[in-house]
């Protein structure tokens, strides 16, 4: 199956790969996985006191589309408010990367990951 | 007598259960492969020959399914209307995912180690141990009709089997 140029670009030069300290009160961590293909994705956000995402990091073990989806979403969420980030839709990722139907689930994984990271951050703050 | 609308277990003549007597499976497979061999149908009509080919391919798929611990578990769930192979659900125990992440990170660092083989073997042993535990849990839960717990075990097996593939790929790379 042919990957789009954007997928290849993100796959070959993934943005924001890395890990943040998940004990940090300003860091939210989202861990998601796709049982059907065994892909695992970790997405982390660092949030400023006024609720803006200052930084984002990810690590994905999976196919090119899963890596590209998570790489792209870390670029997008920087500078967003938590609300904006939580409203991101997988369809926007799939469209931007021109994912074929069989790879749509990779963009769903990225959407779930950012939602999980925002939820994790909020839960930490509420404690 | 032959009926491909039966499930693989019934077709091969074994009880529908996760625990499969592998030597009985081998014996039954050999018998059926002999009975169904297309050469025995060479003198029959085209239609009957086509049927024989169909039986044979059903049988081979059945043997492969019953031999593999993962395929067998997935198949047993599919008989109960549960599909773990194409579902897009991402709701997996976060602690388990964390562990999967760590195992994959360990694998990723192995090529840089001075003695990669020792760590690779240790990782393989660890992962096989986890798979064994999941298979035992699945057998018990499936038997007890605890299908949602059993399904969870299969999802975990799928992540670990993927990791086994990655471990073997690295083994090949180091050997190459």
From TrEMBL, chain A:
Record-annotated membrane-spanning stretches: none
One matching Pfam family: NifU_N
Residue intervals of the NIF system FeS cluster assembly NifU N-terminal domain: 2-126
Role noted for this protein: A scaffold on which IscS assembles Fe-S clusters. It is likely that Fe-S cluster coordination is flexible as the role of this complex is to build and then hand off Fe-S clusters.
UniProt similarity note: Belongs to the NifU family.
Protein name: Iron-sulfur cluster assembly scaffold protein IscU
Record organism: Neptuniibacter pectenicola
Organism lineage: Bacteria, Pseudomonadati, Pseudomonadota, Gammaproteobacteria, Oceanospirillales
Gene assigned in the entry: iscU
